[in-house]
Design brief:
5-stranded parallel sheet, Rossmann fold, alpha/beta, 5 strands, globular
């Protein structure tokens, strides 16, 4: 069991359940939010080791939420991963320019999600 805390910011209940279930089964401490504003609050209360952030959220979007997380003092070594159904090369580049550390495409691959999360956590700057 890893015990590392993953914050999942996702407004689609089915996607949120899938990601929670997969990461819970892998031993992660999963906390969640269904909007950018809630994500900011949860991150402040329960500091995550990694954030999976949907880009299209009600209220403030994923990119603005990322900017506020960084501005409000979340450690720069905490990876923030864009999660979106947009899969074009320009979408990847846009997420990178916005400051996301990585990009995960929807639909989420159950087989690769845990591996991707582990790689991102292992790559953190200590």
């Amino acid at each position: 069991m890893t015990g590392e805390r993953i914050l999942v910011v996702e407004d689609n209940p089915l996607n949120l359940k899938l990601v929670r279930d997969v990461l819970d089964a892998a031993g992660y401490d999963v906390v969640s939010a269904t909007s950018g504003e809630e994500g900011l609050r949860v991150a402040a209360e329960r500091t995550p080791d990694l954030v999976l952030m949907d880009l299209q959220l009600p209220g403030i979007d994923g990119t603005e939420t990322l900017h506020r997380l960084r501005r409000d003092g979340m450690a720069p070594d905490v990876p923030v991963v864009a999660v979106t159904a947009f899969a074009m090369a320009e979408d990847h580049a846009r997420a990178e320019r916005a400051g996301f550390d990585a990009y995960v495409e929807k639909p989420i691959s159950v087989r690769s999600l845990v591996h991707q999360v582990r790689q991102l956590l292992d790559g953190r700057v200590s």
